[in-house]
Design a protein that fits this description.
This protein has about 80 residues and is mainly beta. It is about 0% helix and about 20% strand.
Length: about 80
Amino acid sequence: MARPDRTVLMSGICPHRKGLMRYGKVDPEKLRITCPLHHSAFSIETGERVAGPACEPLRVYDEMPEECSSYDGSDDSFTS
């Protein structure tokens, strides 16, 4: 069950062909985000691909990774 108070932090880059997820479509009922480039869809809760071209899961974090604690929003991805 989804938690309405949960903030989700995920990679801003699609693992399929590097589409910018900031332009993706969020489906709040299915808890999915779809990449605008080739339409790979991912679970917002787990990052697993649920539709579209085969690729690695989208990185999802429960909290800000320590190495990204100074993230300023100027980039589309987190690296570890």
